[in-house]
Design brief:
One of its GO terms (molecular function) is ATP hydrolysis activity. It is an enzyme of class 5 (isomerase). It catalyses: Couples ATP hydrolysis with the unwinding of duplex DNA by translocating in the 3'-5' direction; ATP + H2O = ADP + phosphate + H(+). This is ATP-dependent DNA helicase UvrD2. Residues 649-729 form the HRDC domain. By secondary structure, this protein is an alpha/beta fold. It has five domains: 17-109 and 217-295, P-loop containing nucleotide triphosphate hydrolases (Rossmann fold, 3-Layer(aba) Sandwich), CATH 3.40.50; 126-203; 335-397 and 503-582, 3-Layer(aba) Sandwich (Rossmann fold); 401-496, no CATH class; 652-720, HRDC domain (DNA polymerase, domain 1). The chain has a six-stranded parallel sheet, sandwiched between helices. It has a six-stranded parallel sheet with strand order 11-16-15-12-14-13, covered by helices on one side. The protein has a two-stranded parallel ribbon with strand order 4-5. Strand 2 (71-75), helix 5 and strand 3 form a beta-alpha-beta unit. Helix 18 crosses helix 19 (379-388), helix 21 runs antiparallel to helix 22 (456-477) and helix 26 (653-670) crosses helix 27 (680-689). It starts with 5 loop residues before the first helix and ends in a 12-residue tail after the last helix. Residues 1-7 and 593-623 have low confidence and may be disordered.
Length: 731
């Protein structure tokens, strides 16, 4: 657990092409030297895939086999592209283009638009949601904030899967996609959104790909020009390619096969955006002569972490699972993963914060610790717990480092000091580079000790502290470095989006943590209903949730903590249980087969009276069945919930709490116990069902005609996210 050194942050550029290959293992070397024909790299988590492909490009360039300007490496995030550019620069291959699909397509679109279409390219919008709202208004369809977000996601999915509005309903049905509104309404909103966009001369990010594809398909002269520029392609995270991105890649390639793809089907976690591992899994079929290299030596995680990761995938099902890679740890043994159960979420957050504080006190850098969760809504409680414990933190997914206002101002101050430092009294008594940087940044708000608490002031300080740490590492690597040299380094890093390390604990969703790693990882909220998430219904969706947990586990190098809470809030009902994905893996648990519908092969249906007592036959009523597993229900509480007590709940807990608050008011008004309004079980059933109308509400056991007439309007208003009419019960 030491600070970054010369060898890691600022390595020397290899002297020769052969020196580029130094330090690669046999499989990585095989990737680096396979420079001809199609190449498919199946790379497990932590196996050094980015190292392998960047050394491959650098070796080809340094050996004179590849021209830097003829190579296009594409990936999916600006951060990943920036990291790739940074590594290539350190290997002496700085002229290679490493971009996201959208960035590469946008450059081509901007260049060729005047020639292919004429005039200037329509303005690119950053966010669709306002246009979707305008389209909904034009269609006279009311959408709340959540529905706006969901409809926007459907439009994005449609475009990356190359589905036009008229085909949306059929495409959604074919793929088993659950529409947030009626498919016909989604199709109408999608068509109107496209009309509004065209009418205002706007394009969105998906249009960038679609329009580039259209130009390359229709204008063979332009396609030939692009192909003469780029003759060798590398695609990272190939399991996340959408049909639209694959179409663009095919057009870039033409009839050539100078293509290297890298991916891991077991890390496919973005199918909701249209990503599919099929292109990776079918690569050998499309390219029978391809070289296939498997990377399974895990250099990131300890054997104990790798054992858990392999165990998770051993229970997986489906096509991606059939191609899983069995990782082999290359590290020394470490501690076993820690599993912790808490009574409620605040206790879980406080427990994690205490352990993190102790780890930092023992010498673990805060930047080497992460707290990972399934949804962004889980972040706030952990932010507060860390702030209360005096632990610095940063949020992933926030504004990019070099775009932060305080970083831009600091860069300007350092640039000015580098040019006019001789006239700056701040620098009169300082000689070495780190001291100069500290002196300059003290004028921008940096202090030797961090400010207390959390919030914007602390975040600004952390940004400036990251620049101070970078200056220290830079000076250690380059003894004679000047302030001007550091400014040049910062400029190069800004261009590559190669951010320095911020010294704080990372809080991140599992999706945003992909591609990152830490010495210590806390996986929190690993309970049924959150992992897998409640809306994961199909086998494919459940398996993607398993892969998401696998991604979380494989972010840890040495220490891994897995935790869950039995209830949401203190004093709440302890009705949660650990994630099914941990069955057979955590101590004291056993592997359990998933429930099957009653009556299915191998399933057991416990009919009425099956306990051996008197059989009570009901001839006039269909037996109540669990809506999750199909088992016949006999317990009154379970019949109200319409599911078994131990089956996963898909309850909207925020709605449940609002209903409980409303019930307390009604009970106080009537002078009766709260259960006389509605029982807890009935409120839970309402929060799970979220009825839209009186008919759906009436079907929930425990409502009844009298309560429907008295409370139905209030309950439906709360379910719709509205405030109940307080005047209704004033009498």
């Amino acid at each position: 657990m030491t600070a970054a050194t010369h060898s890691t942050l600022f390595p020397q550029v290899p002297d020769t092409a052969d020196a580029v290959l130094d330090g690669l293992d046999p499989e990585q070397r095989a990737v680096a030297t396979a420079l001809h024909g199609p190449v498919c790299v199946l790379a497990g988590a932590g196996t050094g895939k980015t190292r392998a492909i960047t050394h491959r490009i650098a070796y080809g360039v340094r050996a004179g086999i590849l021209q830097p300007s003829s190579v296009l490496a594409v990936t999916f995030t600006n951060r990943a592209a920036g990291e790739m550019r940074g590594r290539l620069r350190q290997l002496g291959a700085g002229g290679v283009q490493a971009r996201t699909f959208h960035s590469a397509a946008l450059r081509q679109l901007q260049y060729f638009w005047p020639k292919a279409v004429g005039g200037s390219l329509p303005r690119l919008i950053d966010r669709k949601i306002q246009l979707v709202a305008d389209a909904a208004a034009a269609c006279r369809i009311r959408l709340d904030r959540g529905e706006l977000r969901d409809v926007t996601a459907e439009i994005e999915w449609s475009k990356v899967t190359q589905t036009v509005p008229s085909d949306y309903a059929a495409a959604a049905a074919k793929t088993g996609r659950e529409s947030p509104r009626a498919p016909a309404e989604i199709a109408q909103l999608y068509a109107t959104y496209e009309y509004v966009k065209r009418d205002r001369s706007l394009i969105d990010f998906e249009d960038v790909l679609l329009l580039t594809v259209g130009i390359l398909q229709d204008r063979h002269d332009i396609a030939d020009q692009v192909r003469s520029q780029y003759q060798h392609f590398v695609v990272d995270e190939y399991q996340d390619v959408s049909p639209l991105q694959q179409r663009l890649l095919d057009l870039w390639l033409g009839e050539r096969d100078s293509l290297c793809v890298v991916g891991d089907a077991s890390q496919t976690i973005y199918s909701f955006t249209g990503a599919t591992p099929d292109h990776l899994l079918d690569f050998r079929t499309r390219h029978p002569g391809a070289t296939v290299v498997k990377l399974v030596r895990d250099y990131r995680s300890s054997p104990q972490v790798v054992h858990l990761a392999n165990g998770l995938l051993s229970q997986a099902r489906g096509r991606a699972a059939d191609h899983r890679l069995e990782l082999i740890s290359q590290r020394a043994p470490g501690p076993e993963p820690v599993y912790t159960e808490y009574t409620d979420e605040p206790a879980e957050a406080e427990g994690a914060a205490r352990r993190i504080r102790d780890l930092i006190a023992s010498g673990v850098p805060a930047a080497e610790i992460a707290v990972l969760f399934r949804t962004n809504s889980q972040s706030e409680i952990h932010e507060q717990a860390l702030a209360d414990a005096g632990v610095p933190y940063q949020l992933r997914g926030a504004e990019r480092f070099f775009d932060r206002p305080e970083v831009r101002k600091a860069g300007s101050a350092l640039r000015a000091a580098a040019r006019f430092g001789a006239n700056d009294s701040l620098l009169d008594d300082v000689v070495d580079l780190p001291s100069q940087v500290r002196a300059v940044l003290s004028g921008e708000g940096w202090t030797g000790q961090p400010p207390a608490g959390s919030g914007a002031v602390r975040e600004r300080w952390e940004s400036l502290a990251a620049l101070v740490h970078l200056a220290q590492d830079f000076a250690a690597a380059k003894q004679d470095a000047t302030l001007g040299d550091l400014v040049a380094e910062l400029d190069e890093r800004a261009g590559a989006q190669h951010a320095p390390t911020v010294q704080g604990v990372t809080l991140a969703s599992l999706h945003s943590a992909k591609g990152l790693e830490w010495d210590v990882v806390f996986l929190v909220g690993v309970a049924e209903g959150m992992m897998p998430i409640t809306y994961a219904k199909t086998d494919e969706q459940i398996e993607e949730e398993r892969r998401l947990l696998y991604v979380g586990v494989t972010r840890a190098r040495e220490h891994l903590s897995v935790s869950w809470a039995l209830s949401r809030s203190p004093g709440g009902r302890a009705n949660r249980r650990p994630s099914r994905f941990l069955d057979g893996l955590r101590p004291g648990s056993v592997t359990t087969a998933g429930r099957t519908n009653g009556g299915g092969p191998g399933g057991v249906e416990r009919g009425i009276g099956s306990s051996g007592g008197t059989v009570v036959r009901r001839t006039s009523r269909t037996p109540a069945r669990c809506r999750v597993c199909g088992r016949t229900l006999t317990d009154a509480g379970e019949m109200k919930l319409m599911r078994c007590e131990d089956c996963p709940s898909d309850m909207d807990e925020g709605l449940y709490e609002r209903l409980r608050d409303w019930r307390a008011v009604q009970a106080q008004r009537s002078g009766q116990p709260a259960f006389c309004v509605f029982t807890d079980k009935t409120l839970m059933a309402i929060a799970e069902t979220v009825p839209d109308d009186e008919g759906e509400l009436a079907r929930i056991p425990g409502v009844g005609v009298r309560k429907l007439n008295r409370f139905g309007a209030d309950v439906l208003a709360i379910c719709a996210g509205q405030e109940p009419d307080e005047a209704r019960h004033d009498d």
